[in-house]
Amino acid sequence: MNPKTIYNKLNLIADELNIKIIKGKGNFKGGCCVIKKESVIVINKNKPFEERVRNLALGLLEFDLHEVQIDSKIKKLIDDYKYAEVKYER
Predict the structure, then answer these.
(1) CATH number at residue 27
(2) Which value, to the nearest 10 degrees, does the dihedral of the CA atoms of residues 84, 85, 86, 90 take?
(3) How many distinct structural domains can be found in the chain?
(4) CA distance 33 to 30
(5) Beta strands of 7-80 (E only): which ranges?
(6) What is the pLDDT of residues 37-86, one digit of tens each?
(7) Whether the Cβ atoms of residue 20 and residue 43 lie closer than 8 Å to each other
(8) Distance (Å, rounded) from C-alpha 40 to C-alpha 19?
(9) Do residues 25 and 46 lie in contact, with contact meaning Cβ atoms separated by under 8 Å?
(10) Residue 65's domain spans which residues?
(11) Is 85 helix (H, G, I), strand (E, B) or coil?
């Protein structure tokens, strides 16, 4: 699966969970944040798709993903990012 396809599937998951995604350009990484009491995921359109996928996957980890049906390959990718972040933080 190419990064653009993965990115689109992650966007669909966010839509199903009613998570707002803000896509913008600028000098920022992106990620999950709260704006006016609403949780959003911010994606930098200047970044390559691989980085957008990473930021979107990590942002989705902040939410209850058990509420939606997730393709096994996408679930594994999200889990891989989760474990990589935990390992990186140590």
Answers:
(1) 3.30.2010
(2) 100
(3) 1
(4) 9
(5) 20-24, 30-35, 38-44
(6) 888 999 999 999 999 999 999 999 989 998 899 999 999 999 998 877 65
(7) no
(8) 6
(9) yes
(10) 3-89
(11) helix
